[in-house]
Amino acid sequence: MSRLVRPPAAIDYPSSDGKPLAENDAQLHAILYAVGVLRLHYAERPDVYVSGDLLIYYEEGNPRVSVAPDAFVVFGVEDRVRMNYKVWEEGKGPDFVLEVASPNTWREDVERKPAVYAGLGVREYFLFDPLGEHLAPRLQGHRLVDGAYEPMAAVESIDRTLTLASEVLGLELRAKPGGEMRFHEPAVGRDLLGHEETHASWRAAEVRAERQATARATAEMRAEQEATAREAAEARAEQEATAREAAEARVAELEARLRDD
Question: Which is deepest, 1, 63, 215, 218, by most CB within 10 Å?
């Protein structure tokens, strides 16, 4: 008598680890900025996937093993909505990872995660400490060489801004004094702006354009008023000249009559 064999139960890979996205506003702002601007930057590339705080599973059949980078970029995979990222299904791990330090995560960022990311083939691993309390320097970069990470040298400007160049992204990551972080596009010499910053920039440009248009209209109106005033003055001057000529003619006529008499 044959026995029915049940198929193995499907393995559940959760889409959340129950941890908050960030522990403080400084960390939150940096994460949201990084994910937002990188998505905008690669918006026209269907083969580039950008995400953040998404669980990456890298051992098939073992949902207990995962990592959730604050921001990451993968080249050569489809840009689509995912509940999580399974390396064995996608065929590769991220190419670029950024972790933003917080009081409860920075040790893991520098002690455990480098080995995990190196094993996943992450070509560049960046760390940023917005408060400057846990990492020295507050911006760090590592490049994968022969399976191990080698530190990248940051450039410090006069205003104490730290700059690291990402070969993978073709961008620079800058940590400015005060905890601000910006991705910079050296080819065009500008910082990448997020949705809110872009909207604010557009609105500021619109306000400037409106003010310039108002100033031009005011100047044109003033010029018209001045031209009208000049024409009126010229007309009055012409009338006065005509009146003087007529008066002088009458005086000359009277003098002539007096002489004749």
Answer: 63
Using DSSP's 3-state secondary structure scheme, residue 155 falls into strand
**Please, how many CA atoms are within 13 Å of residue 47, restricted to the half-sphere of its CB?**
3
Contact 163, 174 (CB under 8 A): yes
Residue 94 tokens read as 């991220």
CA gap 27, 19 in Å, rounded: 14
Query: Computed over its alpha carbons, how large is the radius of gyration of the chain?
Result: 36
* HSE of 172, CA atoms in CB hemisphere, 13 A: 19
49 neighbors 79 (Cβ within 8 angstroms): yes
Give yes or no for a contact between 134 and 27, defined as CB atoms under 8 angstroms apart: no
Q: Which of 32, 8, 123, 12 is nearest to 73 (CA)?
A: 123
Diameter over CA atoms, the chain: 161
Provide the whole-model pTM.
Answer: 0.72
Helices (H), the chain: 25-41, 87-90, 106-111, 113-120, 195-260
The amino acid at residue 235 is: A
What span, in angstroms and rounded, lies between the C-alpha atoms of 13 and 11? 6
